[in-house]
Amino acid sequence: MYRYDEFDAAFVRERVEQFRYQVARRLSGELTEEEFKPLRLMNGLYLQLHAYMLRIAVPYGTLSPRQLRMLATIARKYDKGYGHFTTRQNIQFNWIKLGDVPDVLADLATVEMHALQTSGNCIRNVTADHFAGAAADEIEDPRILAEIIRQWSTLHPEFSYLPRKFKIAVSGSAQDRAAIRFHDMAVEIVKNEAGEIGCRVFVGGGMGRTPYVGQVIGEFVPREDILAFLEAVMRVYNEEGRRDNIYKARIKILVNAVGIDEMRARVSLEFVEIKASGTLQLQDEEIARIAAYFAPPDFEALPDVSGEFEAARHADADFDLWATHNLARHRTPGYAIATISLKPIGGIPGDATAQQMDALADLMDEFGLAEIRVSHEQNLVLPHAKKRDLPAIFARLKALGLGTPNAGLVTDIIACPGLDYCDLANARSIPVAQRISERLAPRQEAIGELKIKISGCINACGHHHAGHIGILGVDKKGVEFYQLQLGGSGAEDASIGEVLGPAFSIDEITDAIERVVDAYLETRQGGERFLDTVRRVGLEPFKQRAYAETAHAAH
Amino acid sequence: MLNLTIHIVRVLSIDFYGWDCDFLSMAKVQTPQMLTANRLVTGEVVYWARGIWIGSLTAAEVFADGRQAEAALDQAKLSVADRTVVNPYLFPVRAEDGHIRPLEEREIIRAAGPTVRSDLGRPTAHV
Amino acid sequence: MPLIRNGAFAEDHFVSVADDAPMPLNGTIVSLARFQRERETLLTRNSPLGVRLKSSESPEALGDDVHRLALIVLEFPIFRDGRPFSQARLLRTRMHYQGEIRAAGHFLYDQIAFAVRTGFDSFEVPEGFTLAQFERALFEMSYVYQPSADGRTTIRGLRTEATVFHHHAG
Fold first, then answer.
1. Mean pLDDT, to the nearest integer, of A419-437?
2. Cβ pair B42:A51 closer than 8 A
3. In the beta sheet, which residues pair with residue A171?
4. Which domains does chain A have, with CATH numbers?
5. Which domain, by its residues, includes C13?
6. Which three-class secondary structure string do you get for A29-55?
7. What distance in Å separates the CA atoms of residue C36 and residue C42, rounded to the nearest whole number?
8. Is the same domain home to C89 and C168?
9. Does residue C102 share a domain with residue C83?
10. Rama region for B29: left / alpha / beta (φ>0; ψ in -120 to 50; rest)
11. pLDDT, tens only, A492-506
């Protein structure tokens, strides 16, 4: 993974002092709250319902054991002993004091971490495939480009006061595990016919009030030109994005207002000029230098089948179940990608305690695992686990409450913090996730892959538009109601879920979800996933079932 | 798994399903209000109590009358200017059996803490 | 308002003139609208001319006339409106403007470093703002990651230099 050199280290240290000074000026009254707010947001600091919330950047979701231990320390020292992993691969702490933040940032800087640009109208954390460097179908590790983009976008003098937030994602394979088509701008690494690696660039995707799937603005941008191209897009957005209405200020609105062809034309004008200047050309040496940080670890030469692994699967039903759902194929024989579920049945999605974080760091050291990843689905991933170590790893995970065998299943729910924590929320989302999880856990094997995503308000931090089942919390005369959407997908077959009908109350929603699932189980053909059935038969059968009075009365 | 109704009942003794009806009958009289903010340095939720900010909602001041409420809000702006708090605002409450309850769920949660973590309690507030 | 230009307090040799007010003899700043309306007259005057742009007005509206302007004032209607940074950048790189670019309106101390990088030379600052604060703003961050209009060496450039040095020294 990337290692700071003297320049990166000096940069974050100075940034801490810069923020310390901003806090001092706020406390002295030199800065009003209105002036201070964007500044603190650019350091990831929100004022939420109960306290300040600090969102710490985890660039492309990659953490070392040392960094994980520091997050545990911060949870204990400055917070209430736990953190929440987010849908943008970051981590949030909910009980931070403003007065402590400069010290939190100083502690983070000692392990090459920061909270830069995790909020505010600037370029946010660059996310990437959480299976990067390990996935069998990968063309190139997307984190190389993600790191290059991260540096270019950090305290960019021209693009720090944008019309609105700007989110960038990178995928290194055709299979999209990073939901790139729902980002303001995204890069898919592709190979052309000549075998050269380049960038397919998407623009104008997004969630929120008006969701859009991103459109291709550059089919094959050569890698050396990618920064010039991204800068061109940013300039057009900075100049022309709307500033009169915060609900219409994202680039997706601009793209859809002028059309993708016009957008491409405007970007091309800028791009040609920036490219001609040569200032942003990516040299091969630079790419190679960054790529070296992401060189794969020294893999042991192992047979793909591990005796210990297979034996454990036969001997231990729990391990077998976990191996069935939580492992993904690694490009290297004898290795597997292991998903650590942060979705215990009935638990709070995405939360981890300081003890769990420390124990995971210990586990990583013990098994020689240099990296852990945060996925945008609010789980953790060990990208390079030896199959023969997995039985022992699983035993440890299970003891920590981190061994839930539900990756991708119906209880692997994504939920934003919602009205329990968030100042923007209209309704609670976590209790809904908990109820659904408990209700459907007994049947999750039979149900198969079903991605439920819950947002507590229209801002869609739970990515409900991309859920196979999406749930949006709304406020109807002060009472929490929940609207269902079906058929969304965040993968390369990106689609926005369709609203099923009138919203359900918090006491009705679990039953409604169960009826929708029942309808699927009765309608599916072959090995169809829920999403496939919805796409095949449409919403009508689900609608009828969800709103059936008799079924409701029966519960 | 946390029973939500029980959580709220335990903490604030509120009939979560009954308030809707009570609100309608309250519409005939001015809705009582209270004043809240967050402390600037700590972010803690605080309530106005006759010129000072305290952590406990139940011990804070209730304004029966809109003008009193607005007057307090004006005074609260001094607390913003001197950097004690940020974002003071009024919110509706109702009185029941001598207890004060916010009408809005958001304020119930701000007063009681996240409904999914009753083990956390409220952050300790300064008086 | 006090003016800081090129890192020092300076006399302002310009006055802003409303769209319908008579033009004094010395350096004047007019709105883009007035410039476009009275272009001929304004450009033949014998004193320095400045144009004040709103954040919604593209410098490209000035075309080649930009080279006949001694000063361009870019106004921040509110500090959150970051268009002036792109306006300045455009003036310097695409339009090769070499005159003075001045920041006016509501911007923060925290934006000064960005403004200098994107091509601003001067700043209308509030009363009481000190040079010490200005310098601090400029030097809070010793290093920058990305190139901008100021041509400042980026971290990547410094890394290359360091490598070259070690290479030669090695």
1. 97
2. yes
3. A188
4. 6-109 (3.90.480.20), 134-291 (3.30.413.10), 307-399 (3.90.480.20), 415-554 (3.30.413.10)
5. 3-139
6. CCCCHHHHHHHHHCCCEEECCCCEEEE
7. 9
8. no
9. yes
10. beta
11. 999 999 999 999 999
C135 and C147 share one domain: no
Do C and B share at least 3 CB pairs under 8 Å? Answer: no
Q: What percent of chain C lies above the pLDDT cut of 90?
A: 88
Contact A381, A93 (CB under 8 A): no
Would you list the DSSP string of A86-114? -TTS-EEEEEE-GGGHHHHHHHHHTTT--
DSSP for residue A443: G
> Which residues are registered as beta bridge partners of A476?
A479
CA distances to A464, C19, C21, C47, C91 from C37, in Å: 52, 10, 14, 18, 21
ipTM score of the complex?
0.95
pTM: 0.94
CATH code of the domain containing C108: 3.20.20.70
Which residue among B4, B20, B82 sits closest to A431, beta carbon to beta carbon?
B4
Domain ranges in chain B are: 4-112
- Using the predicted structure, report yes or no on whether residue B124 has a pLDDT greater than 90: no
By Cβ distance, the residue of A28, A50, A99 closest to B123 is A50
pLDDT of the residue at B29: 58
Using 50, 70 and 90 to split pLDDT, how confident is the model at A128? Answer: very high
In angstroms, the CA B39 to CA B85 distance is 4
Could you tell me if C155 and C129 lie in one domain?
A: no
Contact A402, A457 (CB under 8 A): no
CA torsion angle for A246, A208, A121, C150 (degrees, to 10)?
-110
Size of interface A-C (CB pairs under 8 A): 98
pLDDT tens digits, one per residue of A332-345: 999 999 999 999 99
Smallest Cα–Cα separation from A430: which of A351, A497, A492, A357? A351
- Are residues C153 and C128 part of one domain? no
Number of domains in chain C: 2
C127 and C84 inside one domain? yes
Q: Do B120 and A99 touch (CB under 8 A)?
A: no
Please provide the average confidence, as pLDDT, over all residues in chain C.
Answer: 94
CB of A479 within 8 Å of a chain B CB? The answer is yes
What is the rounded average pLDDT of the residues A414-429?
Answer: 97
**pLDDT average, residue stretch A215-236:** 98
Whether residue A80 and residue B120 make contact (CB cut-off 8 A), yes or no, is yes
Specify whether C66 is located in the same domain as C120: yes
